[in-house]
Design a protein that fits this description.
Elements lengths: L1 H28 L2 H17 L6 H25 L1 H4 L17 H23 L1 H22 L6 H5 L1 H4 L1 H10 L4 H24 L1 H7 L4 H4 L2 H19 L1 H4 L5 H23 L4 H31 L1
Helix pairs in contact: 2-3, 2-9, 2-16, 3-5, 3-6, 3-9, 5-6, 6-9, 9-10, 10-13, 10-16, 13-15, 15-16
Length: 308
C-alpha cells in the first residue's frame, strides 16, 4: 500500500511538472526580456501624452502592446529556427531545442497578432491599432524576413520596429501622431544601433557562423565602433526634442544630458578599447539608459503636475 501511494505521488508530481515546463517554453517564445522594454516605453508614451484615458482602457492598450510584441517574437523564432540552432546565444530556445514544434510557434504568433490588433481597434482606437499592426509587420516582414540576412544595415532600418511602442501608447490617448510622438520614436530609433552593435561585437562569431551580415561581420570591428560613436552623438540632440517642444522640462532635460554623456563615454571607450569588456559594459548600460531616460519623462510630467 505504501509503495502504491508513493508511485501515485511520483506520477502526480511528474504530471504537475510537465505543463509548467511547457508553459515556460511558450512564454520564452514571446521573448519576455524584450517585451519588458517594449511595454515600458509604450506605457511611458501613454502616460505622458496630453489628454486622458480611462485607467482600465490604458491597461488594455498596454496589454495589447505586450501581446503584439510577443506575437512578433514568436514568428521571429519560427523563421530564424534554422540559424538559431547553430548560435550559442539562441540554440537553447524552445524551437531549436525541440521543446516546441515550429508550426505551433507560428500559429501562436499569428493568433496573438490578430487578437492584439483587433482588441486595440475595438477597445482603444484605429490609429493605435494601425500603428500596432505596422510594428508587427515591420518586425516580421521587413526586419526578420528581409533585412536581417541581406544587409549590415539590418538593425538600423529594422530598429524602427522597436521604436513604435511609445507612439502606440501616445496614439492610444490622443488618437493620432504628432511631433512629440515622433520624437519618442526617434529616440529609440537612434538608440538601437549602438545598443545592438555592442551586442554584435561580442557575438560576432555566432553571426559569422550562420551568415548573418551584422556590421562587425561585414565591415569589421573598427568601422562598427566608429558608427556606434556616430549614432550615440546623433542620439544626444534628439533626446532634447521633447524639451524644445515644451512637452518635458528641466528634470528630464538634466537627466537626458547626464545619462547621454555617460552613454557617449561608453561609446568612446568601445572605440578605444580592443578588449571585449567595453562592448559588454556599453550593452548593459544602454538598457539601463533607456529605462532611466523614459522613466525621467514620466517623473518630469508628474513633477509638473504636482507643482501646478
Amino acid at each position: 500500500m505504501t509503495k502504491q501511494v508513493a508511485n501515485q505521488t511520483i506520477a502526480l508530481e511528474n504530471a504537475a511538472q510537465l505543463p509548467i515546463s511547457e508553459v515556460r517554453d511558450y512564454i520564452a517564445l514571446l521573448k519576455p526580456g524584450v517585451m519588458t522594454l517594449v511595454v515600458f516605453t509604450g506605457a511611458v508614451g501613454l502616460l505622458i501624452a496630453p489628454g486622458s484615458i480611462h485607467p482600465f482602457l490604458g491597461l488594455v492598450a498596454i496589454a495589447c502592446i505586450a501581446v503584439a510584441s510577443g506575437a512578433a517574437a514568436s514568428i521571429n523564432m519560427w523563421y530564424d529556427r534554422d540559424i538559431d540552432i547553430h548560435m550559442k546565444r539562441t540554440q537553447n530556445r524552445p524551437i531549436p531545442a525541440g521543446r516546441v514544434p515550429a508550426d505551433e510557434a507560428l500559429s501562436l504568433g499569428i493568433a496573438l497578432s490578430i487578437v492584439s490588433v483587433t482588441v486595440m481597434a475595438v477597445a482603444i482606437n484605429f490609429a493605435a491599432a494601425a500603428l500596432l499592426a505596422v510594428s508587427i509587420a515591420f518586425y516580421v516582414f521587413v526586419y526578420t524576413m528581409w533585412l536581417k540576412r541581406s544587409t549590415p544595415q539590418n538593425i538600423v532600418i529594422g530598429g524602427a520596429a522597436g521604436a513604435f511602442p511609445p507612439m502606440i501608447g501616445w496614439a492610444s490617448v490622443t488618437g493620432g501622431i504628432d511631433l512629440n510622438s515622433i520624437a519618442l520614436f526617434m529616440i529609440i530609433f537612434m538608440w538601437t544601433p549602438p545598443h545592438f552593435w555592442a551586442l554584435a561585437l561580442f557575438r560576432c562569431g555566432d553571426y559569422a557562423k550562420v551568415g548573418v551580415p551584422m556590421m562587425p561581420v561585414v565591415a569589421g570591428e573598427a568601422a562598427t565602433k566608429k558608427q556606434m560613436l556616430i549614432y550615440t552623438i546623433l542620439l544626444l540632440p534628439v533626446t532634447f526634442v521633447p524639451v524644445a517642444t515644451g512637452l518635458l522640462g528641466v528634470f528630464y532635460g538634466v537627466t537626458a544630458g547626464l545619462t547621454g554623456l555617460l552613454f557617449l563615454r561608453h561609446a568612446i571607450r568601445v572605440l578605444r578599447d580592443a578588449e571585449e569588456r567595453a562592448p559588454h559594459k556599453m550593452f548593459g548600460y544602454s538598457i539601463l539608459y533607456l529605462f532611466v531616460l523614459f522613466g525621467a519623462m514620466v517623473a518630469d510630467v508628474w513633477l509638473v503636475g504636482f507643482m501646478a
